[in-house]
Every structure is written in structure tokens, then in C-alpha cells.
Design brief:
The chain is about 35% helix and about 20% strand. By secondary structure, the chain is α+β, with helices and mostly antiparallel strands. Strands 1, 5, 6, 7, 8, 9, 10, 11 and 12 form a nine-stranded mixed beta sheet that branches. It is globular, with a radius of gyration of 22 Å.
Length: about 350
């Protein structure tokens, strides 16, 4: 008679523990408290919470963001649905309808690789405030950072100065050849296929590998005035040197990007142009085009009010706030246990 015949317990295996959360229950409780503090901050600021569809035929058209396609039974064969990479489109439609100060806590989905700082399904906090200038948008983000993280106020740094301080390179004026030489001097190894990458891809490489790890190490920092070519859905303006820059800003802490904000683009025709350009870049990268005819364009044609918006990765915020080393330390069930 073997062990299975007499009811003896089998030896524990790795599979037996897969049902357990990767984060401790205490960490998950602390995460819930952090979310309560965040909602209290928005209430104090006069924002109200909204909900928009996670599943839609519309999706953000971005070179680097790949939405998850879904085909629900109710959809026709010609309809493509997507799990949203951000609630941006739905929330801006609410702004066009008359909402002024709104926020949302939602699940977002991206076809990213899973890792210490990435999970295909994650919690996003996004907010929009009508009437906020670029300066006011950055200040509101700084105020949230202080209130929720209980830290000192974030410092400010331009994208140009971030590169100058780390690499002695002006990203707005450097040629493609200069970017390649800078990468070589910084001992960055790239594949043969990357050698034909464009200007922005080389900037992104230098940012990710050499500049970003030094951002917000001792205290959070807000980086602003990105290249105009990286505006996405932000307005474009001229800085004090006359350089065309994106009215865009990002929050970093301990070398990790936490939030991305825009003084929002208002021109529907410009949105259409940028979507077409983004799809052309996606095709050049070997990716599928995403739908350009969406309800946000219709809403912007009706009239999107001047506003500032910010998207914040809550899982990463929780990781920083709770002193965790990776996302799995603050998630109940990351993708490998979902």
C-alpha cells in the first residue's frame, strides 16, 4: 500500500503555494490605507470620482502602448474591442460634456512583459482639472505626493537639465550622431537592429539606462519640458530659450517613473494628425495600426475645455511608499498567479 492509499499527506510542492498572495496581508492592508489617503486628498481638492468603460472600441493610439484585444460575444465580426491602457478617452469625453474636476481609480491593461516594475494588469489613478495650467498641474501633483507619500515636496528639473547633469548633453539640440556617440561613451550595448533607431528612441535609451536611475534618489522629482516630438496628447509651446517643448511632466522617485502629466491637447485636428503619425511609427516597428476614428475626436470637436491631466501608477506608488522592492510585494496576485 502506498502513501496515497492510506491517506498520507503528499509532500508540499511549488504548485501548492501558487494560490497564496505574493504580498503579505499586512502590506495589502497598508496598500488599502494608502488608497484611502489618496481618495481623501482628491475629496479635499474638490474632485469627484468617476467610472468609464474598461472595455471599448476606442483605445489610445501610442507608438509604445499595446492594448489587449478582446472580442465579446455581443460584438460583430467587424468590431474590435480593447481593454483600456488608460481611462483617458472616457474621462475627456466627460470633460467635454461639462465635468470639471474628476478622478478615477481603475484597472488598466497593457501587453507589457511582467517583471519587477511591470504587470500586464495594474491599477491606474488618473485625474483631470479644468482650468489648471501646466504650472498648477505640476503643483497639484507635488501636493498629492506630499500628502500621500508623507515626503518633502518634489523638486523640479527640466528634461534638458536632467540630460546635461548626467551626460553633459543637450537633448533638444543633439544630433542623432551625437546621441549614438554619447551612448557609446556611456558603455551602452545595443543590438545591430537598434543602430537604425530614430532620434527619440536613442533619447529614450539614454533616459532609461543612464538618466532615470539618478532621478528622485533622495527625494521625488518632477521632470518637465520634454521634446516636442514626445508630446503625445500634450500641448506644445516654446520654453525660455525658444525651444519647442511638450507641456508634459513626469514624477520620479528612487529612479522609478510614477506619474505622467499633460497640459492637454485641445485641437481635434491635431489629435487626428498625431494618431496618424503614431500609427505610422507603429507600422515601422512591425506593430498593428490602432483605430484612429474614435469618440474622443468627436468630443474634442464639440469642445474640450483647457485642462491638465495626470496618470499615476498606483502599484508603483505603493511600492515606494511601503518600501517594497518589486510590484509583487504590493500585489495580491500578479500575472503569474492570476
Amino acid at each position: 500500500m502506498d502513501a496515497s492509499d492510506n491517506g498520507a499527506a503528499h509532500l508540499p510542492s511549488e504548485l501548492d503555494s501558487k494560490w497564496r498572495p505574493t504580498a503579505s496581508l499586512e502590506r495589502l492592508r497598508q496598500r488599502a490605507e494608502l488608497l484611502s489617503r489618496l481618495r481623501a486628498f482628491f475629496a479635499q481638492q474638490g474632485l469627484w470620482e468617476v467610472e468609464t468603460p474598461v472595455l471599448s472600441t476606442d483605445t489610445v493610439v501610442d507608438r509604445y502602448l499595446d492594448p489587449v484585444p478582446v472580442q465579446p460575444p455581443c460584438a460583430s465580426e467587424r468590431e474590435n474591442f480593447w481593454l483600456q491602457t488608460s481611462p483617458e478617452f472616457g474621462m475627456k469625453r466627460l470633460l467635454a460634456a461639462g465635468a470639471e474636476m474628476i478622478y478615477q481609480v481603475t484597472r488598466a491593461f497593457r501587453q507589457d512583459e511582467a517583471g519587477p516594475l511591470h504587470n500586464p494588469e495594474f491599477t491606474m489613478v488618473e485625474w483631470y482639472c479644468v482650468g489648471d495650467s501646466l504650472e498648477r498641474g505640476m503643483q497639484r501633483l507635488a501636493d498629492l505626493c506630499v500628502a500621500v507619500l508623507d515626503c518633502q515636496a518634489p523638486t523640479r528639473l527640466t528634461y534638458r537639465d536632467a540630460f546635461l547633469q548626467t551626460l553633459a548633453l543637450d537633448p533638444h539640440t543633439a544630433s542623432l550622431a551625437e546621441l549614438k556617440r554619447c551612448a557609446a561613451s556611456a558603455n551602452l550595448q545595443v543590438s545591430d537592429s537598434f543602430l537604425s533607431a530614430d532620434h527619440d528612441e536613442w533619447l529614450n535609451l539614454l533616459l532609461a539606462e543612464r538618466v532615470q536611475p539618478r532621478l528622485g534618489v533622495t527625494a521625488p522629482v518632477i521632470v518637465c519640458d520634454y521634446p516636442a516630438s514626445q508630446a503625445a496628447l500634450a500641448q506644445i509651446r516654446h520654453d525660455e530659450r525658444g525651444t519647442r517643448v511638450a507641456s508634459r511632466f513626469e514624477l520620479y522617485a528612487q529612479g522609478i517613473e510614477l506619474a505622467n502629466g499633460y497640459h492637454e491637447l485641445l485641437d481635434a485636428a491635431q489629435l487626428q494628425l498625431r494618431q496618424t503619425q503614431a500609427n505610422a511609427l507603429r507600422q515601422s516597428d512591425g506593430k498593428a495600426r490602432l483605430p484612429e476614428d474614435n469618440r474622443l475626436i468627436q468630443a474634442m470637436q464639440h469642445g474640450l475645455p483647457d485642462c491638465c491631466g495626470v496618470a499615476l501608477g498606483f502599484d508603483r506608488l505603493a511600492m515606494i511608499a511601503l518600501g517594497a522592492q518589486q510590484l509583487s510585494d504590493v500585489l495580491a496576485f500578479p500575472i503569474d498567479r492570476a
